[in-house]
Each structure stands twice: as C-alpha cells, then as structure tokens.
Amino acid sequence: MMNGGLRALEERVFDRDLCVSCGACVSLCPYLRSWQGRIVKLDECDLAEGRCFNYCPRGKVDLNELHQRLFGGPYKEIEMGMVRSVLMARACDSVWAGRVQNGGVVSALTDLAIKEGVIDAAVLTDREVNLLPRGHIVSGREDIMACTGSIYTSGPTLEALNRGPWTGDERIGIVGLPCMVLALAKMRTSSLEKRTPIDRVDLVIGLFCTWALDYKSFMGFLQKRFGDRTIGKVDITPPPERIMKITAGDELHDIPLDEIRSFIRPGCHVCPDMTSEFSDISVGTVEGEEGWNTVLVRTERGEELVKRAEAKGVIESQPLPGDKLSHLKEASLLKKRRAIDALKDRGELEDGYLTLSRELIQQIQSESKEAP
Ligand SMILES: Cc1cc2nc3c(=O)[nH]c(=O)nc-3n(C[C@H](O)[C@H](O)[C@H](O)COP(=O)(O)OP(=O)(O)OC[C@H]3O[C@@H](n4cnc5c(N)ncnc54)[C@H](O)[C@@H]3O)c2cc1C
C-alpha cells in the first residue's frame, strides 16, 4: 500500500481537513505538536516514509488488510466488526457512582486490569482546562478517577503513549475513541521501526463514538454562551431528543444538537467506525437505560478481563435486549453508510484514505437504513 511521510500527511490529511487530532503522529519527531486540540506542523521533513502518515487513522486505511492481520480473517462483519459476545453491564463499586459517564465499566475494568497486573499503567484522557482533552498516564485508582466522564471534543490522547515517560517494561492499556483505536491498529501492523511502545500495549478499550467536536470552535461557542464559567459534565441524550446536556458553573443547560453540528470535526464525517472495531473490548451507552453500558467483547484477552471482572463482582452484567442490539447494529451500519456518502461527496471514494471493496460498499449501502 502507498504510504508517505509528513508531506503526505499535510497534503492528504491536514489540507483536506481530515485530521481528528488523535495524537498518533505527535512526539515521534520534532516537527509536529498539539496545540489547542489541533495538530500543527512546525517545520518541513523530506522523509519519503514517516511514522506520522503511517500511523494516521486518516492516512491510508485498508480495513480488509488490517482485519486480516489483526483478526486473521477478511473484514466481513460489516455491522460492528468482530464480536465474541455482547452484554449490558455496570460497575458495582459505589466509588464510581456520580463520577463516571454511564455505567463506569471503562473505569472499573481499567482499575481491575491494573490491580490484577494485567497491565501496569494505562493511557486515559483528562481535561487540561475546560474541555481540552489530553492523554494522561495512570497507574492507580485515584488517577483513573481524575479521567472519568466523556469529553466530547477530540484531543491528542495517543501523544501520551508516544511520549511516556515509560521505563521500558510496563504492560500498557489504552482507552480511546475509534480513530485512536484504528491508529493503534496501524501502529501494530506498520513495518517501520517502532518509536512507540505499541508492542507493550496489552489492552485496548475502545469507546463508541458517532463524532467528536473541534475544541477551539466549540469552546468559542461555549464562551459566548456561558462566559468563563467552568464546564462540568457533558452528556448527549439519545434520539429522538438529541440534546447536549451541559453543566456550566452550577447550572445544567440544554443545547439542541443541531446548534453544535457545525463544530463536528470534518474528519469524523468520513469515519466508518462507531464501535472501535479494532479494540479488545468496546464500550458505549445503552440508549434508554441510564447508568448502564453496552459492552462488545472482541478478543480473547478482552473476554478474560470481562469474565474476571464479573467473577470478582467488579461489574454486573445481563444480556443486552434484542431490540437494543438491533438498534446498535443499525446505528453502526448507518455511520459506515454516511462515511461512504461523505467520501463520495468529496470525490474521495476511489482515491481517498479508505479502501473498501466494491462488494462491501454495496453491502453497506443496501443493508443500512436512514434513521427516522
Ligand atoms: C467524543 C465521544 C463520543 C461518544 N459518542 C458515543 C456514541 O455516539 N454512542 C455511545 O453509546 N457512546 C458514545 N461515547 C461513549 C460514552 O460517552 C462513554 O464513554 C462510554 O459509554 C463509557 O462509559 P463509562 O461510564 O464506562 O465511562 P467512564 O468510566 O466514565 O470512563 C470514561 C473514559 O473515557 C475516556 N475519555 C473521555 N473523553 C475522551 C476523549 N475525548 N477521547 C478519548 N477518551 C476519552 C476517559 O479516559 C475514561 O477512561 C462517546 C464518548 C466520547 C468521548
């Protein structure tokens, strides 16, 4: 597959406004930095091949090739990728209550994985200030608690993986958005010499994500509306309501999603992955069931951790009701369809970042249904 270096990253990702600010290209070389939720180029680099473009989730992505290499078979589970089991779960320990976004499964599993020595540390995301996300390396419960909740702006979490500090022996876990999980898959399979501890990443927990907002423009909007009040918890209600509930200072405010759609990163519109398909475990909300998570278990190590968490009473689980599973599959497939449509509108379906066979494209188009 054609790859490239910083020039390709600039021409094919930055200039096309496809960067999602995942941070996969930062802290690998002196030329790229993150600033205010954006990745900025500081200088030129003539390398024909670079990790920056190689790892970029909007660089070249051949879903079938990645799937073959990571899961040992062709990409054919078009709804949500490879899934071993699906459940609905929540954390049992009351210590997570009131802090976590939904059921706290992500934080509780991260906590258990560290406690049990499955991993020594994890790369999570916290807020630098207001809603500016940054990667945070944690190795204990207190730090995990500082990272609970969803930040709906995108930020360079993976920079922390690249930067460390690491001693060189730690087994690492990561929680990330689908774009980040895709970047990790590209890091794992890249033939370039690794300058990031991806080979010691032993656990990837992927979040569900429909889109993320651009930090700078969204913050501009919030500042106009709420002045310099501190932004607290942000949540998004499911359809048909579709409202962002946001705590500014001490007050809870409703913002209809239509008012903030223009702040969605363009790179999210071409993303086909709602459920972090290259993770060990994927976690999202359960629509209409407050305080619960939908959990997709994808790999053996993901399964081991979830079973251990159930056995130790760290999480409690039950089957996800059939209607909720069908709805999740529809939403996931719809994100793929929209990505294909967006690439087509941009004239990038043939020579864009995403390689999907004609048969898969047709299957996605024919099987997806537009939401009411
Ligand atoms: C931008 C975004 C969009 C989302 N869209 C959907 C959606 O469409 N449908 C759905 O079902 N769920 C979505 N989610 C996931 C959902 O909000 C919860 O993160 C998930 O259900 C886990 O809940 P929890 O209670 O286990 O999380 P917690 O235990 O509270 O843990 C939250 C974890 O999320 C990580 N995190 C928070 N913000 C970010 C970020 N910006 N980038 C990377 N990691 C982050 C933190 O490090 C923490 O580990 C989205 C999350 C984000 C951040």
Structure, explained:
- The chain is α/β, with parallel strands linked by helices.
- Among the domains are: 191 residues, Aspartate Aminotransferase, domain 2 (3-Layer(aba) Sandwich), CATH 3.40.640; 49 residues.
- It is built from twelve helices and 15 strands.
- Helix 11 crosses helix 12.
- It starts with 5 loop residues before the first helix and ends in a 5-residue tail after the last helix.
- The mean pLDDT is 95.
- Bound molecules: flavin-adenine dinucleotide.
- Flavin-adenine dinucleotide binds next to helix 4, strand 5, strand 7 and strand 12.
Strand-helix topology:
Elements (H helix, E strand, L loop, with lengths): L5 H9 L17 E4 L2 E4 L9 H5 L5 E2 H9 L13 E7 L13 H11 L5 E7 L5 E6 L2 H5 L11 H7 L8 E5 L1 H12 L11 E7 L7 H12 L4 E6 L6 E6 L2 E6 L9 H4 L11 E5 L7 E5 L2 H12 L3 E4 L3 H24 L8 E2 L2 H10 L5
Parallel strand pairs: 3-15, 5-7, 7-8, 8-12
Antiparallel strand pairs: 1-2, 4-13, 4-14, 5-6, 9-10, 10-11, 12-13
Helix pairs in contact: 11-12
This protein binds flavin-adenine dinucleotide (FAD).
